[in-house]
Model the fold of this input.
Amino acid sequence: MVWIAGPLSGLIVQPIIGVVADESKSRWGRRRPFIVMGSLIVACSLLTLGFTKEIVALFVLDKKLAKIFTIVVAVLALYVTDFAINAVMSCGRSLVVDTLPIQKQQSGAAWASRMGSLGHIIGYGMGAVDLVQIFGPRLGDTQFKQLTVIAAVGMLMTSAITCWAVTERVLVTVRQDPRRAQGRFKVVQKIWSTLLTLPPRIRAICWAVFWSWIGWFPFLIYSSTWVGETYFRYDVPGDARNTKDALGDMGRIGSTALTVYSTVTFISAWILPPLIRAPEDNTFTHRPPVAIAHWVQTLNKFKPDLLTAWVASHLMFAFAMSLTPFAASFRFATVLVALCGVPWSIAIWAPSTFMGVEVNKLGGATDPTSPNGGSPVLYRRMSGGSSIEMRGLGDSHHSDPESAAGAGNSTGELSGIYFGILNIFCTLPQFISTFISALVFAVLEPGKSPELATDAHPSEHSDPGGTNSIAICMFIGAISSLAAAYATTKLRHV
Done:
């Protein structure tokens, strides 16, 4: 029940919030109000999750009843956290598309990747140190309580910086479309109709993401467990195998592998974007300093484009996952996990970049006056000068001399719904991958894992010398990644 919170929230919340935000006429912009509200809800839910027992104790005195309510409140807090944070993520990604021109979409997506990777490293680092010893009981008397407090404060601070620093466009009118869904379920109807009529290139991006996530999901969920199990199968000393904290040892070995993986992802997110040619880069004139102009021009000739790099990342991930059944030491398993940090860094920013480019093309950002660019989007400064007022598509009358100022800039009117649909193609594979993994576990390890079930009867253990079922799940992911590579190459011909 708990594990489904993540995929379910991504499947439901991001498309719906995307549609609602796309049509929001708030004076504060279309995305920032949702970021603020979502961040506040996330912070409150995290604190509730960390201090559930204390909160329940204020209202329920019976110990048995309090235990039940503690579980219920904790699960609800986890669901609320997942749903609210998906709203923040949806609007955050759309904000990048809304505010940056086509030529800067890769740069914006790359920076989002860098910040996400930095957050992972900070999160793993805080989990590895004893926070209670560092801060004392001021933030809570347990590690988990202090983690939730720090995460809540970090969520509020980073969201506040984003909302303060970004100058967002304000929607004035919504395009009048006679086919626009009406009634109670108009949001769902709009998502469904848009899903059925996706532009060819956006559909190709979505299918590439779909196949890649069938491969990525088991890796993201089981990789640390797999490294820990590999350690206990092949590397653990005999006297340490029967330790009382065997599960903790596995967790620490797996966490070490994830820390290395996150570090590789972070480094790749900084190094790779400057070495890869962005989409529509030929429309942007680079002016490097004269002293290095020759070297920059020479390097640019050998830069692969982002599509080639995305295909290569699929193949690299498939190669690493195809070797998982043959891993016979936790060091080799750690190397394979760390190697996946490079394709993951590309998998984070490549789909967002291509989607941002296509959404802006649909909005006519490339050339608002071209007959093939759609209806022009008009801009004019508000009296305060702090935001840009934006007319909806279809309002082609130029009522303001500054209305053409947005030519060539990002519009992103539909970024919310299209990124929400992209997230559907990210979350559906998670259910498919979970079903495949369940079948693999049922066939290969019908008993209890000997690495985990230390207190189980030996007759219930699976064979420790047999094939690791998690490795087989990741091998299946390698096959799916090959399908993703093929689907990505089709984007070049659409």
